[in-house]
Amino acid sequence: MAHSRRNLETMNEYLASYERAVEIGIGRRSDPARALAERGVSVTATDIHDRDVPEGVRFVRDDIVDPDPAVYASADVVYARNLPPELHRPALEAARNADADFVFTTLGGDQPAVPVERKTIASGTLYVARALPE
C-alpha cells in the first residue's frame, strides 16, 4: 500500500487508506475506530473484555496472546494504540498470519519489540512492523 512520504497528522490518516482494519485492545477509547469507520474503513475492534463500540464498528472478544485467526483473516491492517511491548510480537504474528500490515503506537518511552519502520505523526511515532525474521 503506498503512503505519502510527508509527515502524517494522525494515525487515522495513515489507516484510512486501508479497506479492512482490526484494532487490538480498543478499551474505552472508541472515537478513533468510529472516525475510521466514518471514513469508509471496515473496522473490527477486539479486546479481552466486552466493550461497547460505536455504530459501524464490529466488536469481537479476543486475546491477541491466543488469537482466533478468523478475526484477523480478512484484515488489510491490524493496528493498536499504546500497545505494551509484550504484545508486539503476538500482534505481529496475528497480522502476518492474515497477510496484513501491523501498525501501532506505544505508551510513553516504550520501544518497539519487533523490527519496524518509524513514521512521524502529530502525537509522536507510528510504527509499521516488518515481517518476522525466519
Descriptive account of the structure:
The chain has 134 residues and is of the alpha/beta class. 20% of the residues lie in helices and 26% in strands. It is built from four helices and seven strands. It has helices at residues 11-15, 31-38, 69-72, 88-97, and strands spanning 20-23, 42-47, 57-61, 77-80, 101-104, 116-121, 124-129. It has a seven-stranded mixed sheet, sandwiched between helices. It is globular and about 30 Å long.
Question: In terms of topology, how is this protein built?
Answer:
Blueprint: H1 11-15, E1 20-23, H2 31-38, E2 42-47, E3 57-61, H3 69-72, E4 77-80, H4 88-97, E5 101-104, E6 116-121, E7 124-129
Parallel strand pairs: 1-2, 1-4, 2-3, 4-5
Antiparallel strand pairs: 5-7, 6-7
